[in-house]
């Protein structure tokens, strides 16, 4: 992850100058398809609607962005001389194999960029950034005893951010296994449950708690989701339910369900008389 001073004042990108709301519409759940899903929906073709919270504490402005699946080297945090903070990066589309079948595609990919104009009471030369469990945190310290207050507060959450129920999941079938990938930024593996039921139902659930609020904090922007989530998938018959494995990395849960090896039919050659 790079922290780069930038001086391109005429870029063709919108700066968030508090406090317009442009929270993206969450991906609406759709019925389980029986056939493979060959195309991506518009919501998944670009990773442009990265959700970001902006919290002002007595000491600093703190930005938190959900970037599941990205490493710190794939994210840029830049500052411009007119007090503009820019967060950008790209999540590449997963490499496809001609033998793979996509049953479900919900997770986003592509480039993203978000820009925020900061108030005057900040130390632009002391900005710090870190990544953990798929969440980017950018801290912009404030000038002590600044005579003017920061801009107005956003005290309510948008309805789309009040529940973490729209967890996006991809389901890919390879020749060897069914592979599920879920975006669960900010969660640790202990906070996610992967369960199987005897009628071949895979259940993924968990909860991301709302960040603890302090009476001295001011929320300028609230986009990131919190609350409980649960997704259930009925698996086909050709799976080994007792060999399911799960792992977490950079805010992405991967569940691998091995397939039963199909026995090749015995072929007997028949002599042709005559």
Descriptive report:
This protein is mostly beta strands. It has one domain (2-258): Sandwich (Immunoglobulin-like). The chain has no helices and 17 strands. The chain has a five-stranded antiparallel beta sheet, with no helix packed on it. Mean pLDDT is 77; it is low at 4-13, 16-46 and 148-163.
Question: Could you give the topology of this structure?
Answer:
Blueprint: E1 2-6, E2 52-56, E3 60-66, E4 75-80, E5 84-91, E6 101-104, E7 110-117, E8 128-132, E9 135-141, E10 169-173, E11 177-183, E12 192-197, E13 201-208, E14 218-221, E15 227-234, E16 245-249, E17 252-258
Helix content: under 10%
Point out poorly predicted stretches.
4-13, 16-46, 148-163
Listing every helix as H and every strand as E from the N terminus to the C terminus, the arrangement reads EEEEEEEEEEEEEEEEE
**Looking at CATH, which topology would you report?**
Immunoglobulin-like
Report the β-strand fraction as a percent range.
Answer: 35-45%
Please give a handful of descriptors for the protein shown.
five-stranded antiparallel β-sheet; Immunoglobulin-like; mainly beta; stress response; CS_dom; 274 residues; 0% helix; SHSP domain-containing protein; A-crystallin/Hsp20_dom
Question: Can you summarize this structure?
Answer:
With 274 residues, the protein is mainly β.
């Amino acid at each position: 992850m790079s922290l780069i001073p930038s001086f391109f004042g005429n870029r063709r990108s919108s700066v968030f100058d508090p406090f317009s709301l442009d929270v993206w519409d969450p991906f609406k759940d759709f019925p389980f398809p029986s056939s493979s899903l060959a195309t991506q929906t518009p919501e998944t073709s670009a990773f442009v609607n990265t959700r970001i919270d902006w919290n002002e504490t007595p000491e600093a402005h703190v930005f938190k962005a959900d970037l599941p699946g990205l490493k710190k080297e794939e994210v840029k945090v830049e500052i411009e001389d007119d007090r503009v903070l820019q967060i950008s990066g790209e999540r590449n589309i997963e490499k496809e194999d001609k033998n793979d079948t996509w049953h479900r595609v919900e997770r986003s990919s592509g480039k993203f960029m978000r820009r925020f104009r900061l108030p005057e009471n900040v130390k632009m030369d002391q900005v710090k950034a870190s990544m953990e469990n798929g969440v980017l945190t950018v801290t912009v310290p404030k000038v002590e005893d600044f005579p003017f207050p920061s801009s107005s507060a956003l005290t309510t959450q948008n309805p789309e951010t009040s529940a973490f129920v729209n967890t996006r999941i991809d389901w890919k079938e390879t020749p060897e296994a069914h592979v599920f990938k879920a975006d669960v930024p900010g969660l640790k593996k202990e906070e996610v449950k992967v369960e199987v039921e005897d009628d071949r139902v895979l259940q993924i659930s968990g909860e991301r708690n709302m960040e603890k609020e302090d009476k001295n904090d001011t929320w300028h922007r609230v986009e990131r989701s919190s609350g409980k989530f649960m997704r259930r998938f009925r698996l086909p018959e050709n799976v080994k339910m007792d060999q399911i494995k799960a792992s977490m990395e950079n805010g992405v849960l991967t569940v691998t369900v091995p397939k039963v090896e199909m026995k090749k039919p015995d072929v007997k050659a028949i002599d042709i008389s005559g």
